[in-house]
Amino acid sequence: MHENKLPYNDYGSVMRCRLGGRVQKLAIDAHLGCPHRDSASGTGGCTFCLGEAFTPSYCSSQNSVTEQINSAMEFHAARRRRADKYLAYFQAGTNTFAPLSTLRELYSEALAHPQIDGIIVGTRPDCVSSEILDLLEELSHRCYVAVEYGVESTSDEILRHVNRGHDYACAVRAVADTKARGIDVGAHFILGLPMQRREDIAEEITRINALGVDFVKFHQLQVYRNTPMAREWCDKPERFLFANGFKLEDYLVMMVDMIRHLDPAIAIERFASQAPRHLILSSPLGGVRMDVLRERIVAELRRLGAVQGDLL
């Protein structure tokens, strides 16, 4: 735990200690697409995916990396979000899905910005190679570098069902290979994917604890309009944990239980996600703000006298 005295290992506090100040991530859209969604095989990508739901409003792939960084800094400054350190966060799409020379150019442009202290590269576990890891390791010798993998689930059955395009063993290998280079690794997981039951969560946390990541993001399933999952939600609601009356209070109880079983060495970056409301067909959290959700989770942990990992 860190000096903020929160009852969980807070990612923001970890990064303040690591980089020596308040850290702000600046999202970048490098317009690299997704090998699963854009492939010639026509597999169509993950059933839950809607690209525009994951990109902040200030991102525009029509602008250069430098222009996007400047726009992002203006966006956060206008909202009085003060920071001492800035990280270029290659967020949209699969940010290792390009020739090595292109990736070097993109990452180097970000790091050439005078106010950027490092990069975070979001990608898929099945879209990383030893050559790409060589490049990231090289960069990590002069600045902060982290990789975020979209793992989404530890269940192969669920990964197949949502047409993820890789199995869990692939994620295990990618994390291990990246950690072996001395690079920080994060992973995000979607809670409430079809076929996932409440009792499966405990097994998922056990596997996450064994994965070896430095930080995690938990996202509640949000069913986006005009996706294959939206059709499944309407046709087969019994497949979904968050259907049939599952509400915000239920999510709070579930999240508190997960935190108490999560290895306290793993930093938690987020408990849920937000997206433009007009894109969402269904979400268990309704319109609750993420800061309010976080406050309620912290309050419940404190009410219970609980901390991260106390039931591990």
Give a short synopsis of this structure:
With 312 residues, the protein is an alpha/beta fold. It has ten helices and nine strands. The chain is globular and about 50 Å long.
Topology record:
Elements: H1 11-19, E1 23-28, H2 65-78, E2 85-90, H3 100-112, E3 116-123, H4 130-140, E4 144-152, H5 156-161, H6 168-179, E5 184-191, H7 200-211, E6 215-220, E7 223-224, H8 228-235, H9 248-261, E8 267-270, E9 280-282, H10 290-304
Helix pairs in contact: 9-10
Provide a descriptive summary of the structure in words.
Helix content is 37%, strand content 17%. It has 312 residues and is of the alpha/beta class. It has one domain (11-304): Alpha-Beta Horseshoe (pyruvate-formate lyase- activating enzyme), CATH 3.80.30. The strands form two sheets. The protein has a seven-stranded parallel β-sheet with strand order 1-2-3-4-5-6-8, with helices on both faces. Strands 7-9 form a two-stranded antiparallel ribbon. Helix 9 packs across helix 10. The radius of gyration is 19 Å and the shape is globular. It starts with 10 loop residues before the first helix and ends in an 8-residue tail after the last helix. The model has no long low-confidence stretch (mean pLDDT 92).
Mean pLDDT: 92
What order do the helices and strands follow? HEHEHEHEHHEHEEHHEEH
- Hey, roughly how much beta strand do the residues contain? 15-25%
- Net shape: globular
What top-tier CATH class fits best?
A: Alpha Beta
Rg (CA only): 19 Å
